[in-house]
C-alpha cells in the first residue's frame, strides 16, 4: 500500500470527523438543557420558560440538521476509503452502527419533528415527554457510535477466524460493555454538556451586554452555570477513569501522552510540562508532579506504568510471535483449512499477536521474510508522534480546568449574588464561546492519533486498512469534502447568528416589562390593577 494513499485517506477521514464533531457536542448538551427548561415550564407554568425552551430549541434544531448531514458522509467513507477495514472487522464494527441507525437515530429524528410541530397539538406533559425523548435519543446515538469507536481502541468480544480470514464477534455483551467504550461515552457526553453550557452562557451574556431579553438571559445563565459546573466536574472525574482504562488497554498511547520514554519506579510522576524529543528519546526540561500519574493509571502506589522504550521491546517480541501465527495462517490458506492439530495449536497460541506481524507488511510482502532490521523498524512504528499528543492533552486539560473556574464563578453570582455580573465577566463569557469546541477536538485528536499505527489497536494496522484508490481520487474527494463542509459550516454560523440576533419569539404575555411590573406588584409598589395592564 502506497503510504500517500494511506495518509490522504487518514487526512480525509480526520477532516470529516472533526468537522462533524463541531456539531455533535452542542446537540448533546442543548438537548438536555432545553429538556430542563421545559421541565421548569411544566412545573411552574411560567411562559418565560416556554419562551426559553423554544428559543434554545430553535438553535438546537439548526445544529441537529447540519450535524446529521455531516455524519452521514462519515459512514459512507468506511466503504469507500476503508474497504479492507470494513471487510476485516465489519461483523463487529457494523453492529453498533446499525443499532445506532435503526434505534437511536430514528428515535431522535422522529421526536425532533414532534418537538417543533407539537407545541399546540400536544398537552404540556406530552410535549415534555417528547423533549426528553429527543435528549435521550441524542445521547443514545452517541452511545452506539462510541461503542463502535471504543472497540477500535480495545477490541474485546471478538477473535480472528483463520477460515474466513476475518474478525468475528464472540460476545455482543463484551462489545457493548467494553470498559473503554463506556468511559469514552460518559466522558464525551459530559464534554458536550460543557460545550452547550458555555454556548448558552455566552449568548445570554451577550444579551445582557446589549440589555435585551434580560429575563431570558438571566434564567439561561442560571441553568447553564449550574448544569455546566456539574458537567465540567464530571469531565474531570470521568477523564480520570479514561486514563485508568487506557493504562490497561493502550499503554503506548498513555506513555506517549506523558512523554515517558523509560519506565519509572512506581508510582510514576505526572509530567506537567516538557519538550518531547522523539529522535533523542527524551523529554527536555520536564517538570514533574510526583505520584500523580501512578495514581491515575494504576489506582495504587505500587503499580508500574511502562515507558515507551520498554513497550517498543515488547512490540518487537510480539512481532516475532505474530510471524509464527502468520506462518500457521498461511498453512490454513494453502490447505484450505485442513491443517494438522499441531498447526492449529500453534496458531491458537500465537494468534493474539497476528496483528503485530501485519505491521511488517509496510516493509515486506511476506512477514516471514522480514529481516531483524525490518522487525525493529516495525516495532518503532508502534510509537505515535509524541509531541502533538503531549501538548494536545495538556491544552485540553488546561481548558477543562478553566471551564470549571468560570462556570463556578457564574454559578456563585447567579445563586448568591443576585446575578450582578460585571461587564468584563460578561464579555469573557462571550469570548470563550469557541473554546469548548477546541477542547473537544483536542480530545478526539488525542484518542485517534494516539491509537496509531493501528486502525484497530493490536489487530489491524492503518497501512493495511485503506482502499485501493488513486491519489487523484483522494485529492479530488478531499477537496470536495472540504468545500462542502465549509459551506455547511458557513450556513450553520449564518443561521445561528441570525436567530441569536433576532432573539426569542414572544408568544405569551410574559415580556420583560410584564415581569418588571409583576415583581413591583408583589412588592406592593404599585396597585394590582395597574400592574396587570
Question: What this model shows, in words?
Answer:
The chain is mainly α and 533 residues long. The protein folds into 2 domains: 3-250 and 384-504, no CATH class; 308-380, no CATH class. The chain has helices at 3-20, 24-44, 47-80, 83-117, 124-153, 172-176, 179-209, 214-249, 251-258, 292-298, 308-334, 341-350, 354-358, 372-380, 386-416, 423-431, 435-449, 471-502, 512-522, 528-532; strands at 158-161, 166-169, 270-277, 282-289, 454-456, 460-461. It starts with a helix and ends with a helix.
Topology, please?
Elements: H1 3-20, H2 24-44, H3 47-80, H4 83-117, H5 124-153, E1 158-161, E2 166-169, H6 172-176, H7 179-209, H8 214-249, H9 251-258, E3 270-277, E4 282-289, H10 292-298, H11 308-334, H12 341-350, H13 354-358, H14 372-380, H15 386-416, H16 423-431, H17 435-449, E5 454-456, E6 460-461, H18 471-502, H19 512-522, H20 528-532
Antiparallel strand pairs: 1-2, 3-4, 5-6
Keywords:
single chain; mainly alpha; disordered C terminus
Number of domain modules: 2
Report on the biggest sheet.
Answer: 2 strands, antiparallel
> What is the CA-based Rg, rounded?
27 Å
Helix count from the secondary structure assignment = 20
Overall outline = globular
What proportion strand?
Answer: 5-15%
Enumerate the spans where pLDDT stays under 50 for 5 or more consecutive residues: 508-514, 525-533
Q: Count the E strands.
A: 6
**What sequence of helices (H) and strands (E) makes up the elements?**
HHHHHEEHHHHEEHHHHHHHHEEHHH
Oligomer: single chain
Mean pLDDT across the residues is 87
What share of the residues lie within helices?
over 70%
End-to-end distance, in Å? Answer: 77 Å
Which class best fits the helix and strand makeup? mainly alpha
Strand order of the largest sheet: 1-2
